Amino acid sequence: MVAAFLAPAVVTILLIRIIPFIGAVISTLHVREGVGLLAEERFAGFQNYIELLSDPLFQATLGRTLLFNLIINPLQIALALVIAVLLTRRVPARGLWRMAVFIPCTIPLVGSSIAWGVALRADGPINGILQAVGLPAQPFLSSPTQALASIMLVASWVGIGYWMIFLIAGINEIPDELYEAASLDGAGAWRSFWSVTLPMLKRPLLFVLVADTVANFVLFVPMQMLTGGGPQNSTTMLMFDAYRRTYTYSQPNQGATATVILTVVMLIIVFVQFRLLKEDAR
């Protein structure tokens, strides 16, 4: 009976996850020769891996992806935690504030990207506000030094509200008796946060950290819609690089190789996160 209930889920995972990934791994071991219907694939071993990992542009993409996640993951989680703590206190219109922060999560990322693309244009409303207060207009998405930060802004616009909901749920599960005991010991709000809230939130924080890491490693839509990986490849991440190699450059084997490398790097980081935080989260 249990097997019958689990069968649809197992078959779905096999069809949309495991089998395609095995196919991608097999594709990384081949190279395509020829064009279109006349193209043939021959076994090439680890040639695709050697070519990619020795390519300075791919090395820069790998480093940029790691840097992007090193910055955006702590930033999103820290802001989500601060907002979650504030919105579990007795503040006026608490439910309204929660809804306002969560609303961006209900908008498809395509729609959010379009809205931010308009807002960050050279003649857009954000530059209009800057000029109105006497500050110079900024290039944002058209600047190699500002484009990546602009992508982080777009991703965080959606991500912070989403992770806030999980952290609010975790905070609501903390027994009030712990805060009362801390108060009797003379602990203020800051001390209660470090001694009660944060230790009791380690399980939800572990989930949010891992899920946020995966989400940002495979982030694709803002790069595709707003920058095309530019300017000067400043917003090209591993996920976008895999897409571009496959569909723009017609190099599906190298695209599959980039995807496998992305998956391996992501799994290593997630494994390290579990090892560092799992024991404390028990």
From TrEMBL:
Topological type in the membrane: Multi-pass membrane protein
Cellular localization per UniProt: Cell membrane
Domain ABC transmembrane type-1: 62-273
UniProtKB keywords: Cell membrane, Membrane, Transmembrane, Transmembrane helix, Transport
Annotated Pfam families: BPD_transp_1 (PF00528)
Keyword Transport among UniProt keywords: yes
Main location: membrane
SUPFAM superfamilies for this protein: MetI-like
Domain of life assignment: Bacteria
Bilayer-spanning residue ranges: 66-87, 99-119, 147-169, 205-225, 256-277
Keyword Zinc-finger attributed: no
Family: Belongs to the binding-protein-dependent transport system permease family.
Name of this protein: Sugar ABC transporter permease
